[in-house]
């Protein structure tokens, strides 16, 4: 079995990172992207989205000849005759909460049609439980023995995607022993220091991925639940977080209160989990509660803003941070969207700024009224009545009361990520409100 060439379909946050990292490990990689505008950018050696370290690695791959971009799967498969086709296309949410598998299915049909030999079809996209088995049956019915499907869920985090991929905590592969063995070899150089390769069946790999996101989201939600009570009792959630995080049974990660989780994965994967439970008659009430609670958490500051600023039309609010987290330009399901929508609906004037996500936000906010897109922090804070920190970019964490006083004449600070020192700002005369800190 030739190990040295593979193609990745979909040059998004997952596919472009995976393909580029495999090329850096010495494999010949073809990445297929059907969006022509994106493809044009990729071919010039520029990453079409913000992900630290990715452009540099991409350019190294292209210069070494290991990394090439293609506009369609047929062209890529004919050029490389790969033994492995990775499917990293999007699986967005349908209106009923289920995952839309149109792009995954397109990819598998094309692979069956074009493959010139038996190949391993590796599903990196996050898919509903049972998809791997169903697609294996479909492939076998169309062309017996041509495709061996392996589920290889991805756990990288946007913002640290390159290092997450190059040094994963574990790699999960679900499928037949032979197929898992073959795909596992691609990961040898990434799995140093006894990091495990977890070999399992495809159903467990699929459910394992959804479960990981559900558990991470549940921690954020539970600490936000505690933060709401802290807000009403005068307890300080920062102190409570320390109490929790130093308990080795609980651990320290994903235990920070704020305006809830967003991103392209947690909300969609929880919806998908709920949808699968319901279709099988399994009680999903815990997952549903997480989902519902998180939606309202994004609007945590609204009641206080309305109380403090009843004259919406005469109030300008600055939103600092639009991406769903720092070090990415991804705004999918970001708390900033829900907050901007709600404030705009209530008649507030908005000024918004993000170090990396302005273009994505502008494209999304076309319908919003009374919104000004600021090109820097200074412009965003000028003549505003209240500021809300929505994303914890370093630029906002580095503010100090004296610097803020030079940029901002308002007195209200809503710290949606609890990153500023409440005491410092209060003693400088600001009205500070965090999420569970007052
Ligand atoms: N973004 C993350 O942090 C992350 C992490 C783990 C898993 N995932 C999962 O990985 C999958 C991909 O996520 P993403 O964030 O990279 O998505 P994305 O939307 O950023 O990228 C998907 C890309 O695939 C392209 N595409 C779609 N169909 C295609 C086809 N037939 N041929 C060629 N290109 C095609 C699209 O144009 C797009 O550029 C999803 O299932 C997601 O849930 C995402």
Characterization of the model:
With about 450 residues, this protein is an alpha/beta fold. The protein has three domains: about 5-200, Rossmann fold (3-Layer(aba) Sandwich), CATH 3.40.50.720; about 210-295, Orthogonal Bundle (N-(1-d-carboxylethyl)-l-norvaline Dehydrogenase, domain 2); about 300-435, NAD(P)-binding Rossmann-like Domain (Rossmann fold). It contains 19 helices and 14 strands. α1 links the parallel β1 and β2 (about 30). α4 (about 75-80) packs parallel to α5 and α9 (about 200-235) crosses α12 (about 285-295). The radius of gyration is 23 Å and the shape is globular. The protein starts with a strand and ends with a strand. Bound molecules: nicotinamide-adenine-dinucleotide. Nicotinamide-adenine-dinucleotide (NAD) binds near residues 14, 38, 106, 154 and 156.
Short description:
The protein is of the alpha/beta class. Helix content is 44%, strand content 14%. The chain has three domains: 5-200, Rossmann fold; 209-296, Orthogonal Bundle (N-(1-d-carboxylethyl)-l-norvaline Dehydrogenase, domain 2), CATH 1.10.1040.10; 298-434, NAD(P)-binding Rossmann-like Domain (Rossmann fold), CATH 3.40.50.720.
Number of helices: 19
Q: Remind me, CATH topology of the largest domain?
A: Rossmann fold
CATH class of the largest domain: Alpha Beta
Strand content: 5-15%
Helix and strand content put the structural class at alpha/beta
Strand order within the widest beta sheet: 3-2-1-4-5-6
The radius of gyration is 23 Å
Question: Which oligomeric form is depicted?
Answer: single chain
């Amino acid at each position: 079995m030739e190990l040295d060439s593979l193609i990745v379909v979909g040059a998004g946050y997952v596919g472009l990172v995976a393909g580029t990292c495999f090329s850096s490990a010495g494999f010949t990689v073809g990445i297929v992207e059907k969006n022509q505008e994106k493809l044009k950018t990729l071919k010039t050696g520029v990453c079409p989205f913000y992900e630290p370290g990715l452009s540099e690695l991409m350019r190294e791959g292209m210069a070494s000849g290991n990394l090439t971009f293609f506009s369609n799967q047929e062209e890529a498969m004919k050029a490389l005759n790969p033994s492995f086709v990775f499917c990293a296309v999007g699986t967005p949410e349908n209106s009923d909460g289920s995952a839309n598998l149109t792009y995954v299915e397109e990819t598998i049909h094309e692979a069956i049609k074009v493959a010139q030999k038996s190949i391993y079809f590796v599903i990196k996209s996050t898919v509903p439980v049972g998809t791997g088995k169903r697609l294996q049956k479909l492939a076998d019915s169309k062309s017996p023995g041509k495709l061996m499907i392996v589920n290889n869920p991805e756990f990288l985090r946007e913002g640290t995607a390159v290092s997450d991929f190059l040094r994963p905590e574990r790699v999960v592969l679900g499928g037949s022993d032979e197929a898992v063995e073959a795909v596992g070899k691609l990961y040898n150089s990434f799995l140093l220091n006894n990091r495990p390769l977890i070999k399992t069946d495809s159903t467990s790999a699929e459910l394992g991925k959804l479960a990981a996101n559900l558990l991470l989201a549940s921690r954020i939600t539970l600490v936000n639940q505690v933060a709401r009570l802290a807000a009403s009792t005068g307890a300080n959630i920062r102190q409570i977080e320390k109490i929790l995080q130093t308990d080795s049974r609980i651990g320290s990660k994903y235990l920070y209160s704020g305006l809830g989780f967003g991103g392209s994965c947690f909300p969609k994967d929880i919806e998908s989990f709920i949808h699968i439970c319901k279709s099988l008659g399994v009680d999903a009430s815990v997952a549903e509660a997480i989902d519902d609670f998180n939606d309202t958490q994004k609007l945590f500051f609204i009641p206080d803003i309305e109380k403090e600023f009843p004259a919406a039309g005469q109030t300008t609010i600055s939103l600092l941070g639009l991406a769903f987290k720092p070090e990415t330009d991804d705004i999918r399901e970001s708390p900033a969207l829900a907050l901007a929508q709600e404030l705009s609906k209530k008649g507030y004037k908005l000024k918004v700024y993000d170090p990396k996500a302005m273009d994505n936000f502008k494209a999304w906010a076309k319908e919003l009224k009374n919104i000004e897109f600021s090109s820097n922090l200074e412009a965003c804070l000028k003549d505003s009545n209240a500021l809300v920190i929505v994303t914890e970019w370093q630029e906002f964490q580095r503010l100090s009361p004296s610097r803020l006083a030079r940029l901002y004449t308002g007195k209200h600070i809503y710290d949606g990520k609890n990153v500023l020192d409440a005491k410092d700002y209060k003693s400088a005369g600001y009205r500070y409100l965090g999420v569970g800190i007052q």
